[in-house]
Specification:
Elements (H helix, E strand, L loop, with lengths): L8 E4 L7 H30 L6 H30 L3 E3 H34 L4 H4 L2 H26 L9 E2 L6 H5 L7 H34 L4 H29 L8 H25 L2 H29 L1
Parallel strand pairs: 1-3
Antiparallel strand pairs: 1-2
Helix pairs in contact: 1-2, 1-9, 2-3, 2-9, 3-5, 3-7, 5-7, 7-8, 8-9
């Protein structure tokens, strides 16, 4: 890998210039980053401390929140530092690690979302066997499987991407080391590798998305059979919001990784990449969890405990003063 490399490092051109409009967009992204950090962090905290949220659904949601935290933290802090300091230089090793971490987390989330959809399908369509089908052991196998599939995909793509010789421009017209953007700088024929990426994407994107679509279709059939109009309305609202976020995530990833290299536009790629690196990590805790009555109830209980402990500590201080 090192023997083929003719340039010492890459330069990330970033998402923004320093125009007033782009400064405004940068501020919005930083707010989104903080919302994603706080929302996902809060979800992990609530699920870990509240025993009522120790079901398979919330087990998966806690892992989704962790993946989203790691995914957005892999991209946004580096992009923000480059923008504020006017830099952008990244070593080959740094670029390879960013590809590895990003694709591992992206692959993890693809499979985890599919397992989450299957979990909801079993819960609604076969509630009597739910505890058997979605046992703790099965849930752990699904999570570990998601991580393994993502890690294998990330390793393959990181190693093969940096095996190409890069001998002309150092400038990557992107805000992070994404494989299609890096491959544009290669001094060799990448068509065979692009075909391999396409095949990987069928496994990593189309297969999980098919499972999700089939699961929600079966859920829809089960919902239509419900006698309660209120229950149908609630289920439709929940399923439609879930499918909207899932379609946004998978659709953006498919546009980036399943199009031929000739059809890639730098500006379009950067906008599309922002959807699954920044927007969906912010939306997931809002759509999946914070709208949920059980989660909001757990949040109220946690706030009540904090208020109670604050009062007790105040009373202790007063007693000591007396």
């Amino acid at each position: 890998m090192g023997n083929q490399t003719l340039i010492p490092h890459f330069i990330l051109l970033g998402l923004f210039t320093h125009s007033p409009l782009h400064l405004f967009f940068f501020s919005i992204i930083m707010v989104m980053f903080l919302v994603a950090l706080s929302g996902n962090g809060l979800m992990i905290l609530l699920i870990s401390v509240d025993s009522h949220l120790h079901s398979p659904m919330y087990f998966f949601l806690s892992w989704l929140s962790l993946m989203d935290l790691m995914l957005i933290s892999t991209i946004v802090p580096r992009m923000a530092v480059d923008f504020l300091l006017g830099g952008g230089t990244i070593s080959f090793t740094g670029c390879g690690l960013q590809i590895l971490f990003f694709l591992t987390l992206l692959g993890d989330e693809c499979f985890l979302l599919a397992f989450m959809a299957y979990d909801r399908y079993v819960a609604i369509s076969n509630p009597l066997r739910y505890s058997v089908v979605m046992s703790r052991r099965i849930c752990w196998i699904m999570v570990v499987g998601s991580w393994l599939f993502g890690l294998v995909d990330g390793l393959i793509q990181a190693v093969f991407t940096l095996r190409f010789p890069y001998c002309s421009s150092q400038e990557i017209d992107h805000f992070f080391c994404e494989v299609p953007a890096v491959l544009k700088l290669a001094c060799a024929d990448t068509s065979l590798y692009e075909t391999m990426i396409y095949v990987c994407c069928i496994l990593m994107l189309l297969l999980p998305f098919s499972v999700i679509s089939a699961s929600y279709l079966r859920i829809l059939v089960a919902v239509l059979c419900m006698r309660s109009a209120e229950g149908r309305q609630k289920a439709f609202a929940t399923c439609s919001s879930h499918m909207a976020v899932v379609s946004l995530f998978y659709g953006a990833a498919m546009i980036t990784y399943m199009r031929p290299q000739a059809y890639h536009s730098s500006k379009q790629d950067k906008v599309v990449s922002a959807f699954y690196t920044m927007i969906t990590p912010m939306l997931n805790p809002l759509i999946y969890s914070l709208r949920n009555k059980e989660v909001t109830g757990a949040l109220r209980k946690l706030l009540g405990r904090l208020q109670l402990s604050h009062r007790v500590s105040k009373e202790k201080v007063v007693d000591m003063d007396c």
